[in-house]
Specification:
InterPro entries: ArsR-like_HTH, HTH_ArsR_DNA-bd_dom, HTH_MetalResp_TranReg, WH-like_DNA-bd_sf, WH_DNA-bd_sf. The protein contains 6 helices and 3 strands; from the N terminus they run ααβααββαα. The chain is of the alpha+beta class and 108 residues long. The chain has a domain of 74 residues: Orthogonal Bundle (Arc Repressor Mutant, subunit A), CATH 1.10.10. α1 packs antiparallel against α4, α1 packs across α5 and α2 packs across α4.
């Protein structure tokens, strides 16, 4: 059973992924760590707008930031994204539920 905290997290993840610019940011971060300025340079929008998108992604647990001197660097958290989406799919997918139950039985 998915608890309320997991449901809220999944909601934040899906809201974050609903935006094309945010999906593009995730793609840019797939193999590289980038500064906020490097990310903003790839978009035709204001830096505050890019910053808002980064904030949504970070609040959804999809990316992490680290301040280094005067710059903030962002990196993808792929394991978190995979775990959240996988957990959601397993809860709602009729095929996965029996497999998850079988897995619990094996573990016991």
């Amino acid at each position: 059973m998915v608890d309320d905290a997991h449901l809220r997290l999944m909601e934040r993840v899906f809201q974050a992924l609903a935006s094309t610019p945010r999906r593009k940011i995730l793609a840019y971060l797939a193999h590289a760590e980038l500064s906020a300025g490097d990310i903003a340079a790839r978009f035709e929008m204001s830096k505050p707008a890019v910053s808002q998108h980064l904030s949504v992604l970070e609040n959804a647990g999809l990316i992490a930031s680290e301040k280094r001197g005067q710059y903030v660097f962002y990196r993808l958290l792929p394991d978190t994204l995979a775990n959240v989406l996988n957990g959601y799919v397993q809860e709602v997918c009729p095929v996965s539920r029996p497999l998850k139950a079988e897995s619990r039985t094996i573990a016991e």
